[in-house]
Amino acid sequence: MHTPLIKKLILAVLGMFAFAFALVPLYDVFCDITGLNGKIDLVVAEQSDRVDESRVVDVSFTTHAKSSAPFSVEAQQYSVIVQPGKLSEVEFIARNLSDSARIMQAIPSVSPGQAAKYLHKLACFCFDQQSLQANQTMKFTLRFYVDTELPTDVQELTLSYTLYDVTDSMATSNLKQKNTPDQLVSLAEDVSLRGHENG
Amino acid sequence: MSIAAEEQKASHEHSHGAPSGLKRWLYTTNHKDIGSLYLLFSLLMFLTGGAMAMVIRAELFQPGMQLVDPHFFNQMTTVHGLVMVFGAVMPAFTGLANWMIPMMVGAPDMALPRMNNWSFWILPFAFAILLMSLFMEGGGPAFGWTFYAPLSTTYSNDNTALFVFAVHIMGISSIMGAINVIVTIVNMRAPGMTWMKLPLFVWTWLITAFLLIAVMPVLAGAVTMVLTDKYFGTSFFDAAGGGDPVMFQHIFWFFGHPEVYIMILPAFGIISTIVPTFSRKKLFGYASMVYATSSIALLSFVVWAHHMFTTGMPLAGELFFMYATMLISVPTGVKVFNWVATMWRGAISFEIPMMFAIAFIVLFTLGGFSGLMLAITPADFQYHDTYFVVAHFHYVLVTGAVFSIMAAAYYWLPKWTGNMYNETLAQWHFWMSLVSVNVLFFPMHFVGLAGMPRRIPDYALQFADFNAIISVGGFVFGLSQLLFVAVVFKCIRGGESVPNKVWDGAEGLEWEVASPAPYHTFSKPPKVD
After folding, report:
1. Which residue is catalytic, options B250, B454, B490, B501?
2. Which domains does chain B have, with CATH numbers?
3. Domain A37-168, CATH 3.30.365.10 — does that match?
4. Cβ(A83)–Cβ(A56) under 8 Å?
5. Most distant CA pair in chain A: distance in Å?
6. pTM
7. How far apart are CA B330 and CA B88, in angstroms?
8. The complex's ipTM?
9. Main localization of the protein (chain A) (predicted)?
10. Which B residues in the span 46-65 are in contact with A, Cβ-Cβ below 8 Å?
């Protein structure tokens, strides 16, 4: 007498457990569509065909290494003033501060968040994981432009990079990829990053 | 022949009485035994969590670091929250559901008695695991009961696994309890008990059970992600691997907001039962109560991000969550209005359950108002993570949920034990609690507005006087609860015998069985017209 109802309820419980995990890709899709959260597409953009010469935008750069990440990355210019649509280049000097070879992943973020989808990068060291030998110094070039569609109330934006040391997790995630290829969103993103050229 | 007499005869006929000793409690599948176990366990956890609150208030009695180090202080705030939410309030409501729902709908027992036994007996293990971690190297969870990533992933110690498993077990227990409640209410109502004749406590619990089924698995998912992020190299909440720590908050509060209604809807049911009894009037607006409860439950799924206004949401999101949150005050207002309208021109008498119920109505509403203030997005930026929030949720949870549980305990204790509680002690308990709880939580509004942050073991000197007052209120409130323990145990051991219908204005099937309620009730379903 109770069995059909119990089955439905257990199904609902399992469904909600699955839903909790489904929220992870849903969240990414939602952020992607709306451009919320300052999340930036890690893809190479096309060059803009028009330049808005009527206004300028101040773009500042900041980098922040996670406490366990032995890297420093510094922009050669603190900020640049650009016209929307016009391509700009900024050089970054990256250093491995440790005495061993490490792999670095830089995660970009734009503030204010709603400007994130208007910043397009043609080349960025964040597109790929970067191997740095012990104490090695490397120069990277960021090539970017600000979209002409950028809302006019945004006159300044900040591109911030958080630097992570992914040496250890690369080892484990490669291992995992073999066993469960479709397990995790993060791994899927790893795959999509591959093949893009370095800045 | 009255139903009570029939019951007594019935229980003589199948005289397979309960086994004695420890085994009776370990193996029991009787809803009344399991209800008692839940309630006693909840009382024990209430005192445990209360002891931790005493440590917190002792440390905050004076500015500067006095008694405990900050890491232990963080463990106290965290485990206090976890124990009170999952160990005290939720099991108390489940205990009341076990005791009362079968008697209220005229069923002989819960639908799934063996699962009922399991859902209780895994709980002590969950809390043993959680509390044990406090004594291990590195200490217990110290990241707040909300276990925000990366505090619970990157920055927590290895005992986090124990926290995760404890929460898993608590979740499984709640889900089993919820399934049991739903199946009992849907399938085992006495003939003639149509949906709109269900007592409101049963209605509110039915809706609560659906909330539990919807969100406890999401909590299980969230702790599982924390577990795999911490130990198995996934990056759900780690930006380095493509995850996002803000997503943790979305998933957590998708569980967390319905959770707060899980802790208050059964309270609404209790108040809707007690107020008509002592007003000697029918409940005003029964149908609107049912619809209000349902709409609160539905709305609770679309307001979660009001806990996260300061994470940098876009304006549209802030506006949506602000208005959706404010919308909840409409059905809640309907409820408060109905309780007051029930009392209006009633022949009110002020027995202890009614006193707690009236205190609930006033003080819960006060907590609701501070909730409305918090819902105003621009104002929330000032209130966020201050003692104003602490004041708000303690008004709705202590003078709300806990007071309703006290009211329920006083209301049905004579039915459960057959004895009236000691009126003098109960009066002392009520008045001491009422005064001290306000001394404890009301000044928190002011220190919060003045900027005192929550979860910090020290504070700026200008908050010293208020914190001393708050701590005194806390100690008195804590001690007053020992009076409650005394009342309960005195009442179990003896006291003035009560008739079957303990309160002259009471209505419902539970008052038609003998006092104390026999081990088996409604073996034959009663007829409801």
Report:
1. B454
2. 28-511 (1.20.210.10)
3. no
4. yes
5. 75
6. 0.85
7. 29
8. 0.88
9. membrane
10. none
